[in-house]
Structures are given as C-alpha cells and as structure tokens.
Amino acid sequence: MIFKNIPEIKYEGPKSKNPLAFKFYDSDKIVLGKKMSEHLEFALSWWHTLGANGVDMFGQGTADKSLGKELNTMEHAKAKVDAGFEFMQKLGIKYFCFHDVDLVPEDADINVTNQRLDEISDYILEKMQGTDIKCLWGTANMFSNPRFMNGAGSTNDVEVYAFAAAQIKKALDITVKLGGRGYVFWGGREGYETLLNTDVKFELDNIARLMHMAVDYGRKIGFKDFYIEPKPKEPMKHQYDYDAATAIGFLKQYGLDKDFKLNIEANHATLAGHTFEHDLRIASINGMLGSIDANQGDPHLGWDTDEFPFDVYSATYCMLEVLKNGGLTGGFNFDAKTRRPSNTWEDTFEAYILGMDTFALGLLNAEKIIKDGRIEEFIKQKYASFNSTTVGKKVLNNEINLEELASYAANKKYCDKPCSGKQEYLESIINQILFGN
Ligand code: XUL
Ligand code: CO
Q: Which residues contact 128 (CB under 8 A, 6 or more apart)?
C-alpha cells in the first residue's frame, strides 16, 4: 500500500466533518433513474495526478511525486501505475486518461519509447485485472518535445509531421490495448504567434490530413470515439481549435464531423471568453458533446489554472447541459491539479473529493431545476409566438419569404413588444432551488 494514511473514501453525507469522506457524491444514489456513478463517470488524469509536482515558471516543484523511486525510470513509471490504481480504488474512480509520455519517460529514440509503452501497458493491463478500472481516453503529447515547437499537425517540417503521426499511431494502439473508450486531440501547439512566419491555410489543411489518417487507422483497429478539445490560447497565442464553435466549423469544413465529438474543458471555455455551459450547449446542439475535462479557471488570472471544480453554479449549469444531451459518450476527466502549496498526496485526495462532490451537487441541483420546471417552461413560452400564430408556424416550416413577412409587418403597422427576458426572476428561482431547503 502506498497511501497508508488514506482510507477508502466513503459517502458520509452533508453534515460530515471528515475531510476524507464524500459529503454529496453518493455513488449508488438514484438520480433521474440512474445511479450517480453512471451519470458521473469520473476519470483520473495521469499527467496532473501522478506527474505534476507544482513546478511553475518561477520555481521548482513543491510536491514529491517520486514515490520513493528515481524519476524518469521505468521503475518510477510502474510505481505511478501502482499509485494510480490505489488512488482510483480508494476514491471509487473507474477511469483514467493519459498522454503517451505521462506513462513512461520519453527516449530520444522513438523505438525505445514505444518499447517502454508496450511494457507499461502490459503492466497496466495486469493491474486492471480483477478491478473495474478502465481507460477513458488516451492521447499523444505533441507539445512538450522541442521538435513540436512549430506545431505537430501544423508543423512546417514533414519529418516532425511523421513523428507526430508515429506518436498518434502508438497512442491509439495503447489506448485500444487498454480498452480505452476515446482518443483526444488537444492541439497543444497547433496555432501560431505571428502571420509573418505562418501559412494558416497550409497548416489547417495538414492538421485535417493527420486527423483523417488517425481516423482511418483507428477504424482499422476497431476504434470508435475521437474528440477534439478546444482551447483558445496557451501555449500558442492563436490556437486553431479556439472554442466549440470554431472546432465544429473546422470539423465540418474538412469532412471530419461524423468522426469527431468534442471534449469540452471548463477552463478552456472561460479562456475563450465563454461560460463553460455556453461551449457545452454549442457542442450539444450540434450533436457533438461527447466528453468533459472537469476543472475551473480563476477569473482574476488569465491562464489555464486547471483548478479542481468548486463552483457549484457552474457545475449545476454543466449538468443541466449534460442531462439535456442525454449524457456523455466520454466522461468527466479531472484535468485538474492542486494549488502549488497543496503539496501532499492527502491534498490530492481532498481535491478529488472536492471535485466529485461539486459535480454531485451539480447533478442534484440540475435534477431539481428540471423537476421544478419553471425555467424550461419560461424558455418555451418565450418563443411561443412562433408556434401559436399562423405567421410563426409559416416561418418554422419555411413557408414564407421576405416579401410576405414585410407585408405582414406593414399590415400590422405596430410591433407588439417582445416579452420581458426576466433574467433576475429566473436567477432568483435558481437560488431558491439551490438554497431553499
Ligand atoms: C491542456 C489540456 C490537456 C489536454 C490533453 O490545457 O487540457 O491536458 O486535456 O492533452
Ligand atoms: Co484538458
């Protein structure tokens, strides 16, 4: 056992003062006909949880994640597997997500890295035996290695492009081997700093080519769910997959929309100047909401702080979108890390408890809002004129043209005022539902 002082984390209810217990996440509780754990398929992120040690631009790491082993060795890679499985089992988390190089130290020779990936995935498979833990999604890290400084799919150099392809192929192989449900493309360095050195069209075309190749190969090895994870900036100034709408436009333009859904990350949506729920809605109405990277940003900082979800309003609005979407094909990956001074393993357990409890609250609140019905009814009534009038029905059925609408307006002479938006009333309903009992 690695985390000797951490017990199995159980549900103790909202009154519990035990820091190592769930207050709201009650895995078997039935919500809208399904277990909470089925609504909320949480995943551990290998990179933050088992890798990140608090290093930032101004200082070295504060957390010891060596697990008593020498860093960047296969021994350490295996210790991370042991720690990860114990961590997930203690929290009742059933999924994990990884980048290729989160699993093993990368060698200069890609063949050596690939051998290491074979070895570690054998070890993970062994660990999976007898547990109900599975891989949610895998991906290739095509942004850390200096060869990707000008991008991966968007690189200027065909040799780098080939290495990106090789990493995608291997990451797909490993994901399939681990029974992974999805493969995510987050375009880490797929963007640019200045047009003075960039051919945007060339880069977009090449990214799409690489994605088509990945889909073709994925289909050959029986792979199903591909996702794009939009982000507007960081590390690049302009990132091509800016937000949900931009990514959807890209997928449609290049004929990839049938093969991809979106993995929406809260902190990425807010960096794009949107709310989390906005990007979820845009993905959802396009039939492309597949998965979520669960975290939150800080409104006072302009970067991707990847904090554990704490904002219950945001989680509530998120869960409303998820429920309306009929759930997710992916799940909720905690792409989140503790703050730099929260540097113990216990802090990381507590962070997951916070995140899981926050989403449980979001789910419970969303259920209440749906059952209450006032918000949904208000929205329905707001647009009622289109369903309750002859002219409105004609618009919806595409049976009227511009001239006919113009003569309708001329006949009416005066425009009836549209109904009030009633935002403050609706917000007070939300507060009443969240805090009323
Ligand atoms: C970076 C980010 C990534 C992706 C996977 O902002 O979110 O960790 O989730 O590459
Ligand atoms: Co992410």
A: 134, 178, 179
* DSSP code for 14: T
CA distances, 64 to each of 106, 345, 354, 383 (Å): 20, 9, 22, 56
The mean pLDDT of 85-110, rounded to a whole number, is: 98
- Identity of the amino acid at 310: F
Name the residue ranges covered by the structural domains of the chain: 27-371, 375-435
147, 183, 146: which is closest to 168 by C-alpha? 183
**Atom number, ligand 1, closest to the C-alpha of residue 143:** 10
Over range 267-296, report the average pLDDT: 98
Rounded distance from Cα 78 to ligand 1 centre (Å): 23
Of 125, 136, 124, 132, nearest to 96 by C-alpha is 136
Third-level CATH fold of 27-371: TIM Barrel (3.20.20)
Which residues have CB less than 5 Å away from ligand 2 (the ion)? 265, 293, 335
With a cut of 90, say whether residue 420 has pLDDT above it.
yes
- Region 301-310: mean pLDDT is 96
| Substitution site in 167, 189, 265 for ligand 1 pocket (most atoms within 8 Å of beta carbon) | 265
Residues with CB under 6 A from ligand 1: 99, 139, 184, 186, 229, 231, 265, 293, 304, 335
Q: Are 361 and 314 in contact (CB under 8 A)?
A: no
Counting ligands in written order, the one closest to the CA of 233 is: 1
pTM: 0.97
Nearest ligand 1 atom to alpha carbon 293: 9
242, 272 Cβ separation under 8 angstroms: yes
- Mutating to test ligand 1, I would choose from 293, 303, 306 the residue with most ligand atoms within 8 A of its C-beta, which is 293
Catalytic site residues? 99, 102
Give CA–CA dist 32/320, Å, rounded.
Answer: 12
Tell how far the Cα of 143 is from the centroid of ligand 2, in angstroms.
13
Q: Whose CA is nearest to atom 10 of ligand 1?
A: 186
Q: How many angstroms does the Cα of residue 265 sit away from the middle of ligand 2?
A: 6
What average pLDDT score do residues 59-87 get?
A: 98
Q: How far apart are CA 221 and CA 60, in angstroms?
A: 41
Query: Which helix H or strand E contains 77, and what residues bound it?
Result: helix 74-91
Confidence of residue 194 (pLDDT cuts 50, 70, 90): very high
Q: Give the chain's mean pLDDT.
A: 97
pLDDT at 247 over 90: yes
Residue 20 C-alpha to ligand 2 middle, in angstroms? 26
Condensed to tens digits (0 to 9), the pLDDT of residues 379-392 reads: 999 999 999 999 99
Residue 171 confidence (pLDDT) above 90: yes
